[in-house]
Design brief:
Structural class: mainly alpha
Radius of gyration: 37 Å
Helix content: over 70%
Shape: extended
Mean pLDDT: 90
Number of helices: 32
Oligomer: single chain
């Protein structure tokens, strides 16, 4: 018994020693592995390779050690050593990876026939293993053997008897080679087995739909839908979105009508008009107003019971406004207000069209005044009060405008900095138009910087700074140029364009040396641009360059003139003006736009 106990103690002690040594060895290997990775991150690839080789020799079966050694040997272009290490691994671990890498090693050494033979051997040996085809094809792609990679994937499909295998891999290859119809066929192949991935598939196809192959791509989608009986709503919507991207909106709407019919025939949890509405909303968000308008119109034709009808009519009014069809917009709003309860948004839009676009301030004031009295929330009253101030200002009733702006200020909370900034700026404008320059300056000083998440707050702060500089630079000329500039602002608000131009022209002709003169000239050029008078606008911009070449606005003037010249077909002169911005104004805020315009005019410029 004593001998047995002694043997047990010796065994336990031996096991303890082995465990300690094993733990020490494991710690040493981990330390070496971390060092190897650190060398690799530092791009000291020879040191990394040496460390990984020690690790690999210690355990050739460890994939992480093998892959690390492989990466660094290939970076160092030590292909002969790589070949030996692949063979070393195969001697202890004969698997897909090693066999595929053996072919890669041969290819790296210029032994292309041996490489192809080894890859064929690998595929024969592992013909039932999908990963073999992927690994071999990936190595072929790394060597630029694209056709061979495609053949490998197709062989895998044949041997594994599954035509949907490797669809994404093949699609990516075809897309990279601009074989977009073939890529589409494979993406749709992938979708047939992975229908939850419709958004990803659609994104891939839409990324290249605007190409020379668009007709072939559409043909692939049509064929796919036809084979499925034209009942797959997701694929029909994909087809419609492709057509919409190609500005073939009428065809797209026909497909949406088909989807709506399918919807009525049995899609659960669906509301009639849902697909028209979704299609129209997406087009509206993308700024494709003509397509959105057609879709909303089709939705309205579905009948009054449609739950999307109210939104369709209102959005139609917004679209008509953006497309400058103001009378049509008013007609839509009147139809809306007859059918539905008064809604602030609809009434407000109607009044804004009357004031801002049709320049009928009296009619607008009547609507805004009623809206202010009937509005229930402070926010709505503030919107109405600001709009009333703008309408009265348009009429030249500055005292009433100021009164309404003050009313709006009372409906604004102290923490609503962005809203307060807007109102202070408008009060400053009223005082400026009234030639109360000191009061205008005082209102502008109340505008605060960047305390609100709303980007508009910072916009008003920047505008206020510019306005302040204008006032401070021209206080000494308050009875001459500043007064004329105030008249220009007044006429502009009242939509008296001719009078506004005369006020600016008087500054330029009578006070050409005044600091306001270049600003007046730039504003005059902008007015000519709004009128569509390109020749007078060009004349004003050239006059600016000739007389105010040291102005801080010179880069803006050069950019505007270059745009005019390009539109007139004077390409060389336009390029010259843009290059002047790059050379003489390296800190211009127009630099990116200038480079983009240069690339557009001269494709050889990168």
């Amino acid at each position: 018994m004593a001998t047995l106990r002694l043997l047990n103690k010796i065994f336990l002690f031996t096991m303890l020693i082995v465990t300690i040594l094993s733990a020490q060895e494991s710690n040493n290997l981990q330390r070496l592995y971390n060092q190897a990775l650190q060398f690799e991150r530092m791009r000291v690839y020879d040191q990394a390779s040496a460390q990984f080789e020690i690790l690999f020799n210690a355990n050739p079966r460890n994939i992480a050690y093998y892959q690390g050694l492989k990466r660094n040997l290939l970076r160092l272009e030590k292909y002969e050593q790589f070949l030996q290490k692949v063979k070393q691994r195969l001697s202890v671990q004969n698997d897909v990876m090693g066999n595929a890498d053996l072919g890669s090693a041969y290819y790296k050494l210029g032994q292309s026939e041996d490489a192809m033979y080894q890859w064929d051997l690998t595929l024969q040996k592992y013909s039932g293993n999908a990963s073999a085809y992927i690994q071999v094809a990936n190595l072929m792609l790394q060597e630029g053997l694209v056709d061979q990679a495609v053949k490998t994937y197709k062989l895998g499909r044949k041997n594994l008897k599954d035509e949907s295998l490797f669809a994404v891999e093949l699609a990516n290859i075809f897309a990279s080679r601009d074989q977009r119809a073939l890529a589409t066929r494979e993406y749709l192949n992938y979708y047939s087995k992975n229908q939850r991935q419709i958004r990803w598939v659609e994104g891939q196809i839409l990324s290249y739909i605007k190409s020379d192959d668009s007709l072939a791509v559409l043909a692939e989608i049509r064929n796919f839908n036809k084979s499925s009986g034209d009942t797959d709503v997701s694929m029909l919507l994909l087809h419609a979105n492709c057509l919409k991207s190609l500005n073939r909106s009428d065809e797209a709407l026909q497909i949406i009508q088909q989807v709506e019919r399918l919807s009525r025939d049995g899609i659960k949890n669906n509301r009639e008009g849902q697909y028209f509405y979704q299609f129209a909303e997406e087009a509206y968000r993308q700024g494709k107003y003509d397509i959105a308008l057609k879709a909303f119109t089709s939705l309205q034709q579905m009948g009054p019971e449609n739950s999307f009808m109210a939104e369709a009519i209102l959005k139609t009014a917004y679209i008509q406004t953006k497309m400058h069809n103001y009378q049509k917009a008013l007609k839509s709003l009147d139809a809306y207000l007859l059918r539905y309860d008064d809604r602030f948004e609809a009434v407000f839009l109607k009044a804004k069209i009357l004031s801002d676009y049709l320049h009928k301030p009296d009619e607008a004031i009547a609507v805004f005044d009623k809206l202010y009295k009937t509005s229930r929330t402070r926010e709505q009253k503030r919107f109405a009060a600001i709009a009333l101030g703008e309408s009265h200002l348009q009429k030249g009733e500055t005292n009433r405008a100021e009164k309404w702006y003050m009313q709006a200020l009372q409906k604004t909370e102290p923490y609503q900095t962005d809203l307060q900034n807007e109102i202070y700026y408008k009060l400053a404008e009223v005082n400026f138009i009234n030639k109360k320059f000191a009061q205008s300056h005082s209102e502008l000083k109340k505008i605060k910087s960047g305390t609100s998440e709303n980007a508009g707050s910072q916009d008003y702060f920047n505008d206020a700074l510019e306005f302040l500089f204008l006032l401070e630079d021209n206080f000494s000329d308050s009875t001459t140029t500043l007064t004329l500039f105030a008249d220009y602002k007044k006429y502009l608000v009242q939509n008296k364009t001719v009078d506004a131009e005369k006020a600016l022209e008087k500054i330029i002709s009578h006070y050409p040396e005044a600091s306001l003169a270049p600003i007046a000239l730039l504003q005059l050029a902008n007015l000519y641009g709004i009128e569509g008078n390109a020749s007078k606008r060009e004349e004003s911009l050239r006059h600016f360059i000739a007389n105010y070449h040291d102005s801080q606005y010179m880069d803006e003037v050069l950019f505007q003139l270059a745009g005019l010249l390009a539109a007139a077909g004077k390409k060389e002169e336009a390029i010259a003006k843009l290059n002047t911005i790059l050379v003489d104004h390296p800190y211009s805020t127009y630099l990116e736009e200038t480079r983009e315009k240069l690339r557009e005019l001269s494709p050889s410029i990168q």
